[in-house]
């Protein structure tokens, strides 16, 4: 059995890529393996699920052996009706969805920061500095 973790991010050329990671347990303990980056054209749950399922079929990874799926909290990924997790769950009812802890913690931190005006101002200023020095994401790799 295994679980999957999927996220998307733009690369340095601003091409959106889907990252697929698999996690399984051996007698030596849990193992996480990066499997691939896949260029994507949009972010709908249906599209992302179809990309993931095609990758699984092409690489002979049986979706019926999946016991867990973890994504961020965006509705296209975690939505109960048309989110990627719902589509995968419809294919395999044993593939339980668990929201990504890192993304959830980030949301908690963001909500906490939003409660304090001075903190909002500080992080707004830090963001403005970043935008000034790094106006294009392509510049990031140069520093």
Quick description:
This is Zinc finger MYM-type protein 1. This protein has helices spanning 45-58, 75-78, 84-91, 101-114, 117-133; strands at residues 2-10, 16-26, 29-39, 66-70, 96-97.
Structure commentary:
With 143 residues, the protein is α/β, with parallel strands linked by helices. The protein folds into two domains: 2-99, Nucleotidyltransferase, domain 5; 109-142. It is 40% helix and 27% strand. It contains five helices and five strands; from the N terminus they run βββαβααβαα. The chain has a five-stranded mixed β-sheet with strand order 3-2-1-4-5, with helices on one face. A hairpin with a 5-residue loop joins β1 (2-10) and β2 (16-26). α1 packs across α3 (84-91). The protein is globular, with a radius of gyration of 18 Å. The N and C termini lie far apart (42 Å). The mean pLDDT is 84.
The CATH C-level name of the largest domain is Alpha Beta
Give the biggest beta sheet: 5 strands, mixed
End-to-end separation in angstroms reads: 42 Å
Order of helices and strands: EEEHEHHEHH
What global shape is seen? globular
Q: If you consult CATH, what is the topology of the largest domain?
A: Nucleotidyltransferase, domain 5
Determine the number of helices (DSSP H or I, runs of at least 4 residues): 5
Strands of the widest sheet, in order across it, are 3-2-1-4-5
Q: Which CATH architecture of the largest domain would you pick?
A: 2-Layer Sandwich
Low-pLDDT segments: none
Count up the domains.
2
Share of β-strand residues = 25-35%
Radius of gyration: 18 Å
Number of strands: 5
What structural category arises from helix and sheet content? alpha/beta
Mean pLDDT equals 84
Helix content: 25-40%
């Amino acid at each position: 059995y295994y679980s999957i973790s999927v996220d998307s991010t733009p690369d340095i050329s601003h091409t959106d890529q889907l990252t697929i990671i698999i996690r399984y347990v051996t007698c030596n303990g849990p193992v996480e393996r990066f499997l691939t980056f896949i260029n994507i054209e949009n972010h709908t749950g249906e599209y992302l699920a179809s990309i993931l399922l095609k990758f699984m079929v092409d690489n002979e990874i049986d979706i019926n052996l999946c016991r867990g799926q973890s994504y961020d909290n965006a509705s296209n990924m975690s939505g109960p009706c048309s989110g990627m997790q719902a589509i995968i769950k419809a294919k395999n009812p044993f593939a339980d969805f668990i929201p990504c802890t890192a993304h959830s913690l980030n949301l908690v931190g963001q909500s906490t920061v939003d409660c304090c005006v001075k903190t909002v101002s500080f992080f707004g200023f830090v963001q403005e500095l970043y935008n000034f020095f790094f106006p294009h994401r392509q510049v990031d790799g140069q520093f």
